[in-house]
Amino acid sequence: MRSAAAKMMRAVLVRQFGDVDQMKVERIPIPTVRDKQVLIKVHSSGVNPVDTYVRAGQYKALPDLPYIPGKDAAGLVHSVGASVSKFKPGDRVFSSQTNQMGTLAEYACVDESNVFPLGSSLTFNEGAAIGIPYFTAYRALFQKALAKSGERVLIHGASGAVGIAATQIAKKHGMYVVGTGGTTEGIDLIRETGADEAVNHRDSDHIEKLLEGEKFDVILEMSSHVNLGHDLTLMNSGGRTIVIGCRGPVNINPRALMSTEGSVIGCALFSATPDEFQEIGSAMVKGIMDGWVKPVIDTVFDLEKAHEAHTAVIQSKGAKGKLIVRVQE
User: On the chain, which terminus has fewer CB atoms closer than 10 Å, C or N?
Assistant: First the structure.
C-alpha cells in the first residue's frame, strides 16, 4: 500500500484568474482515475496561447477555481479506469484535454478518448507539442478548408507551433506552401520545415510581393486582427481563409470577397465533434508512425518556471517552434 506522501504531487495551481503571478507550484493530492479515464504520469506539458487566456479569465469557457492549467501532455500511463481498453500502465502516450485538472502537474487524469499512443520515435517534449498545434492545423486544413492536393496554401506565422504543424501536414498531402515569419531564424525554420517559399512579414512590402505571385486557395490565419483585410485580396476564386488566431477587431472590405466568392471560416479545435477529434487523432498517430510528424521545440521550462512560459507564448517577437514545460524526468 502506498504511503500518503506517495499520493501527493507537485502541480501549478491557479486560485484566482489574473496575471502569471497567480500560478503557484503546490503539493496537492494525485487525482483519482475514473471509469473511462487514464491517469498519466506527465513528463512534459505543452504551452498554448489558449492556456494564457483561460488563466487571465478571458476565455468563453472557464474552469472552476482553483484549477491546474495546461491541456497538452506526454508521459507514461500510470493507471487506467475499469472501462479503459486501449491503454495499459507503462504505455507512452500524448494527450489533449480540457479537464479541470490540467497538465501542469506530475499526474493528470484524461478521458480515454483524448489519449493517443506516442510510440517510441518521439521524445516526451515532442509528444507534448502535438495536441493543440497539430490537431488545430489538421482541422483547419481538412475539416474547415477541405484542402486538396495541388492547392496553394499561405500560412501566416509558419514558424510557430501551429504553422509548423500545418506546413508538415500540407506538404505531406501534396500542397504548395508559402509560409510567413518575422525573424531570420523563423524564415530559416520555415524553409527547413519544408515550405516551398518563405516570406518575412516584417518587410514593409511583403503583401505586395505576395500579390505579385499566384493567389492562394487556402490561407491559414494566425493573426486575423492584423492580416484579414489583406487575406481577402490574396485568395483565388473560391478561396478559403481560415481564422485560427485573433487578438482584437479588424476592419475589412467585404467587397473583396465578391469577385472571388471566397470564404472566411472560423476554426476552433474545441468545437470539433468527438468523431472529428478521433479522425484527427488517428491521422496524427499515423503521421508519427510514418515519421512526418516532427514537432520543433523552441524552449523548455521547468515546472517552477511555468509562469515564464505563459509570458513567452504571448510576448514572443518571433516564434521558432513550441514552448514546453518539463514537469518531471
Answer: N
Q: What are phi and psi of 171, to 5 degrees?
A: -65, -40
What is the spatial distance between Cα 25 and Cα 128, in angstroms, rounded to a whole number?
20
Type of residue numbered 23: M
Strands, E assignment, 156-211:
176-181, 197-200
Burial class (CB in 10 A: 0-12, 13-18, 19+), 56: middle
* Residue 67 · residue 23 · CB < 8 Å: no
Chain position carrying cell 502541480:
11
| Strand-strand pairing, 92-96 and 115-117 | antiparallel
Number of residues that this document lists for the chain = 329
pLDDT, averaged in runs of 10, over the chain (329 residues): 62 97 96 94 96 91 93 97 96 84 94 95 97 97 98 95 97 97 91 94 83 92 79 93 85 87 93 95 97 96 97 81 94
List, as one string, the DSSP characters of 233-259.
HHEEEEEEEEE---SS-----THHHHH
What span, in angstroms and rounded, lies between the C-alpha atoms of 155 and 208? 16
Examine residue 117 and say whether the peptide bond preceding it is cis (omega within 30 degrees of 0).
no
- Written as one letter, the residue type at 173 is H
Rounded CA-CA distance 202/286 in Å is 36
The Cα 328–Cα 111 span in angstroms is: 22
Cβ-Cβ contacts under 8 Å for 220 (sequence gap 6 or more) = 137, 140, 141, 145, 153, 154, 155, 156, 162, 163, 166, 242, 244
pLDDT attached to residue 99? 61
